[in-house]
Structure to design on (69 residues):
């Protein structure tokens, strides 16, 4: 199973559906989130760009893991 199957997952931050095209999942705890939600709560490094094709460096709001997703 890859990053996402055909299913959607609830965003850890806002609770709305997250799809592969608008969010990511933490490799440590498997929490799902929208890139914009991470930006809104301040969990994205300032130099990161929130473009769907780019990976962003972010801190998971669920477990605190920092990585690029």
């Amino acid at each position: 199973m890859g990053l996402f199957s055909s299913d959607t997952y609830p965003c850890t931050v806002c609770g709305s559906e997250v799809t592969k095209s608008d969010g990511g999942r933490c490799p440590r705890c498997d929490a799902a989130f929208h890139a914009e939600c991470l930006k809104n709560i301040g969990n994205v490094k300032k130099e990161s760009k929130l473009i769907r094709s780019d990976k962003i460096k972010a801190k998971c709001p669920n477990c605190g893991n920092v990585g690029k997703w």
Q: What stands out?
A: Strands lie at 9-10, 17-18, 23-25, 32-34, 57-59, 66-68. The chain has one helix and six strands. The radius of gyration is 11 Å. Residues 35-40 form the longest helix (6 residues).
